[in-house]
Design brief:
- By secondary structure, the chain is of the alpha/beta class.
- It has a domain of 171 residues: Rossmann fold.
- It has ten helices and ten strands.
- The longest helix is centred in the middle third of the chain and has 21 residues.
- The two termini are 33 Å apart.
């Protein structure tokens, strides 16, 4: 990874205040409040149905909240559409990998880079040399990112032909190409071969060390305890507890929220 980018650690980069979202008569998110410190690696955990993925969709602009506020980088983004939020440097991945299956791995990275001159019809028609020069720079940067993620040998393969673990790595690499300030990973370990979990965890830690604030929704509590600075526990659409995983394992409310499931097992489903 490149030299770490200095960040003002300890100050909030994301704040949710009494956020509500209902579907029909059911409140999937019911007055949820928490904050994420800049430069941190934070896990968002909770039993199935706790509202975690809905919160991610609200923060990323895929859904609009019924009430409450979401502030990112000191700016109120409540109800702002997803592409504008992404343009501000808040990038998210999905539970199921969403690579462009019939594009090469290299093309998957190049296409997500923000602010490409060739996206403008004016530039594409009247400034082709600028666009070609920028394309060469993007390709070089994409190759460097692929090398960092151990995917250089797969650069010319179709992304849809990769293994599940390799697709997760491509997702992380694409996120890096988007130059995020805040990266939200929705269950990055889901469907990954156990042998690759440590590798993925190491890459996620490296992203954080290099100035990217990371929030990961995750069921694998072993990896959460190993790599995360802070944990937010959700239940019934609300924030139940916050802290470090080692302390939360003995929190009676957290244990009850998991409906008696053992918190000392590596994965809670």
């Amino acid at each position: 990874m490149p030299e770490a980018t200095p960040v003002d650690r300890g100050t909030p980069i994301l704040q949710l205040d009494q956020v509500v979202r209902s579907f029909g008569g059911v409140r999937a998110v019911d007055g949820c409040s928490f904050s994420i410190d800049r430069g941190s690696l934070t896990a968002l955990i909770g039993p199935n149905g706790a509202g975690k993925s809905t919160v991610v969709n609200l923060v990323a602009g895929a859904l609009k909240p019924d009430a409450g506020s979401i502030v990112y980088g000191g700016v109120d983004i409540t109800g702002v559409v997803s592409h504008r939020i992404a343009g501000r440097g808040l990038i998210r991945t999905f539970q199921l990998s969403r690579e462009f299956a019939r594009m090469t791995v290299l093309e998957n990275l190049v296409v997500v880079a923000r602010g490409q001159s060739g996206e403008s019809l004016f530039n594409a028609l009247l400034r082709p040399r600028l666009c070609r020069r920028e394309d060469r720079v993007l390709v070089e940067r994409a190759i460097d990112v692929l090398d960092r993620f151990g995917l250089a040998a797969q650069r010319d393969m179709y992304a849809g032909d990769l293994s599940g673990g390799q697709k997760r790595l491509v997702e992380l690499a694409r996120a890096v190409m988007s130059e995020p300030e805040l990266l939200i990973l929705d269950e990055p370990m889901a469907g990954v071969n156990p042998a690759l979990i440590d590798l993925l965890g190491g890459h996620i830690e490296s992203l954080c060390r290099n100035g990217i604030t990371v929030v990961m929704v995750e069921h694998n509590l072993e990896i959460v305890e190993r790599i995360c600075d802070h944990v937010v526990v959700m239940a019934l659409g609300r924030t139940l507890a916050t802290g470090v995983m080692s302390d939360l394992r003995s929190n009676s409310e957290v244990v009850r929220a998991y409906l008696g499931e053992r918190l000392d097992e590596p994965t809670v489903r």
